[in-house]
Amino acid sequence: MRFIDEAVIRVSGGHGGPGCVSFRREAFAPRGGPDGGDGGAGGSVVFVSSSQLGTLQDFRFKRNYQAQNGASGSGANKAGKDGESITLRVPVGTVIKDAQTQEVLMDFGQENEQWIACEGGRGGKGNTHFTSSTHQAPKFAQPGEKSQTLEIQLELKLIADVGIIGFPNTGKSTLISRISAARPKIADYPFTTLTPNLGVVCLPEHQSFVVADIPGLVKGAHRGVGLGHRFLKHIERTRLFIHLLDASSLLERMDDPIWVSEAIEALIHGYVDVRTELGLFNEKLLHKPEIIVINKIDLLESNLKLITQIQIQIRSKIHSIRQSHPLPDEPFIISAVSGTGIELLLMKIYQEFISKPKGLKHNQNKTLSSLLLPDDEALRN
User: Fold this and answer.
1) Thinking of the domain 162-380, which architecture would CATH place it in?
2) DSSP 3-state assignment of 200?
3) Do the bridges between strand 94-98 and strand 197-203 make them parallel or antiparallel, or are there none, so unpaired?
4) SS3 for 149?
5) Distance of alpha carbon 200 from alpha carbon 180, whole angstroms
6) What are the extents of the domains in the chain?
7) How many Cα atoms occupy the beta-carbon half-sphere of 93 within 13 Å?
8) Helices first, then strands: H and E counts in the chain
9) Nearest alpha-carbon partner for 138 in 153, 126, 149
10) N or C: which end of the chain has fewer CB within 10 A?
11) What is the C-alpha separation between 292 and 287, in angstroms, rounded?
12) Within 10 Å of residue 10's Cβ, how many Cβ atoms?
């Protein structure tokens, strides 16, 4: 099933049925009077959130949704039948906006939330309601009330605790497949991942959190380069970013200290480029907690000196780039292929970010600062 995360549709409630103009025609009742029934109410358009859906695929082909109109009233004071409402199910995380003004009308953050987009029109009153001492035979009734029509934009934002971001081919898909049951496509060419993937990370003692793998960003994504930044909305709700960097770029000339130092600086510049794209999309993303992770370290395991140099050189720049101190073990060193360092990374993520109440996020920088080691390299630079 194709991943669809945006759709524009038109929804309309049902019109109310008109009231009836009728007079009693019975034997032995020559002046029976009016007996017109009321019209039925129109049906409504109701949205309901469901965690069993993960895409807006259902809205890809059908764009117009009309609830049933109410039936007309009839004689003998018979009311018309109410029109049937229609229920549209959307994934949890769907944001509904006015397609013209972009005003947010509803944001579904939980299971089974309901929102009435268009209420059905009220049925018109029959002529029975308009009798009076001076007007005993009214020959008119109310028309049914018209319902509202809305053109709305549906936008799905995946709900995850952790978002994995970085350049293409840094190993994001391999990592999510290693730590969860998600099985994204993995290949050795850029932009293998074309849509976000969700996975549940299960930890000991029934602990867990949800992680999202976001398709690779490149410099200039805000101008449409690569896949652009259309998938960045899926990390707006996350509590933490894992920023994945690729250590394999250091393999070319590991014996040349100058080249290695320049290659590490290039990694740092790449990290800054991705953060720049985040800021151009939504400046608030720059203030979310973030962990830098160096992947593919299995390719460098024989060179412990180089691994140490990578950690020290990147760690010394973290505070000046993101204005928050690094965690004691940051940047984390892992191999998504062999599993090296992943257990430590996951436990640190859960302990420092997921297990804490969401209300403490505004104190995150203070928490990180208190965890700094006395000999922190970043504090001395």
Assistant:
1) 3-Layer(aba) Sandwich (3.40)
2) strand
3) unpaired
4) strand
5) 5
6) 1-156, 162-380
7) 22
8) 5, 14
9) 126
10) N
11) 14
12) 13
Query: Would you tell me which CATH number, out of the four given (3.40.50.2300, 1.10.357.10, 2.70.210.12, 1.20.140.10), belongs to the domain 1-156?
Result: 2.70.210.12
Give the HSE-up count for residue 74: Cα atoms under 13 Å, Cβ half-sphere: 5
Structure tokens at 186: 């993995």
Q: Which one has a higher pLDDT value, 323 or 138?
A: 138
Is-contact 146 121, C-beta < 8 A?
yes
Given a contact cutoff of 8 angstroms between Cβ atoms, the answer to whether 170 and 214 are in contact is: no
Residues 6+ apart with CB under 8 A from 359: none
Rounded-to-integer distance, Cα 331 and Cα 245, Å:
10
- Residue 241, φ and ψ in degrees, nearest 5: -105, 135
Backbone angles phi, psi at 242, to 5 degrees: -100, 110
- pLDDT tens string 250-295: 766 666 677 778 888 888 888 888 888 888 888 888 888 889 998 8
Rounded distance, CA 169 to CA 290, Å? 20
**342: phi then psi, degrees, rounded to nearest 5:** -70, -40
DSSP state of 240: E
Q: How many CB atoms lie within 10 A of CB 159?
A: 18
Q: For residue 73, what pLDDT is reported?
A: 93
